[in-house]
Every structure is written in C-alpha cells, then in structure tokens.
Amino acid sequence: MGDLANTVAKLEEAAAESRELRNIVERLDTEISFRMETVQEVGGELLELHGSLDNQIAEHDYMAVEQSAASVRGLVDVETVLPAIDAVLLLTALRDDGAIPDLTLPLASFADDSWDHPRLTQGDLDRVFEAALVRAEEQWQEIRGDHVWDDENERDTHREQHRAEAELKAVKERAARAGAHLMALVDHIGDTLWPEVVEATELGDRDRAVRALAAANSAGREMEAAYKLYEVNLSIQFEKAPESMGAMGEFLSDARDWLLSQ
Known about the structure:
This protein is an all-alpha fold. Helix content is 84%, strand content 0%.
C-alpha cells in the first residue's frame, strides 16, 4: 500500500504541475494576444483616421485636420508600439522555450530620415501652380489671341478675367494637393508599412518589424510638416476667395469681420 500511495501522490503532483503549466501557457497566450492586438489595432485606427481626414480636408476643417495629423503621429510612436512588439517576441520565446530575442534598441534606425515615403515641398507646389498659369495664358492666346476686338479695353478685361479665374483654380488645386499629400502619408503608413510591422511581429522577425516601424515613425513625423504645408496653402486660398471654402470660409470670414470690428 505504501508503494501505491507514493505512486498516487506522484501522479497527483505531476497532474498539479501539468495544470499549473497549462495555466501559465494560457496566461502567456492571453498576454501575447493582448499585446499583438495592440500592434494590429493601429492598422484599424489608421483606416478610421483615413476616412475622417478625407472628410475634414473636403470640408476645409483645418483644425480637425491638425488633430488627425497629430493622431497619426501618436499611433506610430516608437515608445508606444515597440514595447508591445518586444513583449510579443519575449513572451512567445518563453512560451515556446525558444531563444530570448535581442531587444537592443537600434536608435540609428529611428533617427534616420531617409526612409522612402511621400514627400512634398512648397517649391513642388509652386512649380505646378506656375505651370498652370502658363498653360492658362497659352490657352487664352490660342482661343482669343487672334480674335478681333472692337475695344482694346474689352480685350484686356477679358484676358484679366480669364487670368483671375485660372489663378483661383490653381490656388484651390495647390491647397488640394497639399491635403492629398497628408492622405498619401496615411495611406503609405496604413497600407504599406503597418501590414509589414504586423506580419514581422507575428513571424518573430524583430529586425524586420523594427525597420518597418522606423519607416512608419518617419512618415508619421512627416505629418507635422505636411500639415503646415496644407495650412499655409489653405490660408492663401482663404485670402484669395473665402467663398471657395464653403461653410468654413464663411465661418472664418465672419470671425475675421467680428475681430476687425472690435
């Protein structure tokens, strides 16, 4: 009976240890899933911001655009995302009895600003703007240049009106391009870089995940400069033709008139 009792006691101890190991594995699985969701959810939030930003730009709601741009930067912040990635890799290694990953932070990756992402400058916008004005003048010359005018003043007036219309159109298009640049950055992060971050993390490839995160972080930092570019060119549009900005133009015009009356 003594041997039997010892055997039963050992079996019960082994069963208890097995249950405890299963509990540990389950807790690790839960924690890994939670941390992985933290990484994955960024993609969904970027998609939501894409939709919001599209509407905000269409409505010329520059204040909301600024907030959305800041939100994008926050979503791809290294100090928030990298700990979640490293937690997934470390906990997975512990669960699977694998090699502990090297979690050394490659600071140079995040300081590098040479990552490939959409870029735009005021010079780029101005060159397109000037080219549009040149084309408009050429079109006027082609259509009206040989026209016989009864009055030279009428000719000049018509030409100036055409030039003014072309300039307003070019001003609006310049602001629209600046807004489209913001959208392009969000698309680049959400459609190209973030799936790479998620896949690399799931595969346990930290180097690849860090490179994709560094690129996303660089594009996220670019959102601030992109917003400033948008703000400058939208301001030019407002000064040129407030009515072209719909309800926002009316609101800003009323606010300006009120301030000037004080």
